Amino acid sequence: MARNVEFDEQLAVSKAMDVFWRKGYNGTTMRDLTEAMGINSSSLYNTIGDKHELFIRSIKHYTETRMKEALKQLEPIKSPIKAIEKFIQSSVYVITNEPNSCMAIKTTFEVATTDEQVQKIIKADNEFTYNLLNGLVEKAMQKGEITVSQDAAMLTDYIINHFSGWHEFFIIHKDKTRIKNMATFLIKQINQ
Amino acid sequence: MARNVEFDEQLAVSKAMDVFWRKGYNGTTMRDLTEAMGINSSSLYNTIGDKHELFIRSIKHYTETRMKEALKQLEPIKSPIKAIEKFIQSSVYVITNEPNSCMAIKTTFEVATTDEQVQKIIKADNEFTYNLLNGLVEKAMQKGEITVSQDAAMLTDYIINHFSGWHEFFIIHKDKTRIKNMATFLIKQINQ
DNA sequence: CAAATTCTGAAACAAATGTTTTAGATATTT
DNA sequence: AAATATCTAAAACATTTGTTTCAGAATTTG
């Protein structure tokens, strides 16, 4: 009966994501987006929808990609405490090597305060990280690898909580060493 | 020779700051601002300048006010370790009772990545906090009130670093208890 | 009080914004 | 290959954006 959509929707969303990631929601114009995506606005409105819908898809894409990566990276590690350390260290690596900082945190502070739909997605992402890390913390406590605290929930919050500060710090100071020193101290605290 | 400016510039900037604080730089329009400030755009351009200049004044106002408050609050406290604890606790109080989160952090993630002028102001604010807390940490170490680490610089970074995570956490979860638990743990770690 | 100066308000400005329209190109089905 | 359906591109759309203009009101000084 008819033609098919010509552009690869996943690829297009990924390109839109790059722009939103760099410029934020309000700092991005529809022309920025269509230019980066290589499509016309009529195609965009016919397939994905308006700017807001495209943004929703973009953060979803961001968080989903990140979740998959985290799972893949931690899966092969047997020791829970080693996995926790790996998780912290690779967070430091990403934070200190990503020029555009973290799209989820940027979004939290820019629009999650007022946009419920966005907030839900961000919350789900945070809960995924929480559950992933909490599983490891609980196991590490059972094995006696962690003794600083017996409150796994709190320690999970405590560990995750460092990341946005490091992102903020890196934007302001662009100093990897001081972040690495904090991470080393954190790991030492947990290992004690 | 002539008339004086009719509006109170400090008050006007303070009202503009409220809008920027809530809506961010890109989310705020000139009409939002002139409406909140109760002045005409011609008056605004004749006195303060354009939107960007008004934003600069707004964050400056924000950070300066905050610095004064911090000094006032910590001055009467004699014991360095008690002052550090007070600093952490009152941060928790502000974080969990401020519906608009922190303007400095929001600004860092929204525009400090690309706006050098803004970044300078934010950096100066962070360095002020750093110096304030670092003085206390050094004294507490000399007195033997802190023993977890002898690296005052690193521990200062480490303590300050918690705050943006708590802000992020409060936006997403609106849960005071879990933040208070993290703060209690942090204080316990320092006191050890 | 008169003159001089500068501030204010409303309107106007061009440019940019998010979105829609429309005519024609393109692919699928029969 | 013809008919049909739906996609695409360019342009147009109404609003909204940040900023400026200008006539008149207001205040200070002589």
From TrEMBL, chains A, B:
Residues 29-48 bind DNA. InterPro entries: Homeodomain-like_sf, HTH_TetR, Tet_transcr_reg_TetR-rel_C_sf, TetR_C. Keywords: DNA-binding, Transcription, Transcription regulation. It holds the Pfam family TetR_C_13. The keyword Ion transport does not apply. It comes from the Bacteria. Residues 6-66 form the HTH tetR-type domain. One of its GO terms (molecular function) is DNA binding. The keyword Thylakoid does not apply. This is TetR/AcrR family transcriptional regulator. It comes from Pedobacter kyonggii.
